[in-house]
Amino acid sequence: MAKLLLNLRNVPDDEADDVRALLHDHGIAYYETSPGFWNISLGGIWVREDAAFAEAKRLMAGYQAQRAARVRAENEAARRDGTAGTFMTVLRNEPLRVLSAVLGIIFAIALVLLPALLLRR
After folding, report:
1. Any idea where the domains of the chain sit in the sequence?
2. How high is the pLDDT of residue 80?
3. Distance between the two ends of the chain, CA-based, in angstroms?
4. Strand, helix or coil at 44?
5. Is residue 6 exposed (0-12), middle (13-18) or buried (19+ Cβ within 10 Å)?
6. CATH numeric code, 1-84
């Protein structure tokens, strides 16, 4: 019976491609399901054979550790170079997005506080 190796929800395309290549290079049979129309159902990469699942999990653990180290190093290098994204760079580059987010937060807080204010009277 097939077992889920990787849930594809919020997985970047390059990571999914790397996992597909990793499985293909090691001769592990897999198939992929795509999420449903409204992304409610599960999209993922499934290992076809139970016997190969343990090997696939071992390979995935190694790949994820390697990827995490690489991404952390890239983030640290960007932070040292001053090219890492900060709140001020986002505010300068996308002021309407920041303003709409702040207004949305204020609106949500107002909705939460409204019943308490109305019940005080």
Report:
1. 1-84, 86-121
2. 92
3. 62
4. strand
5. buried
6. 3.30.70.1530
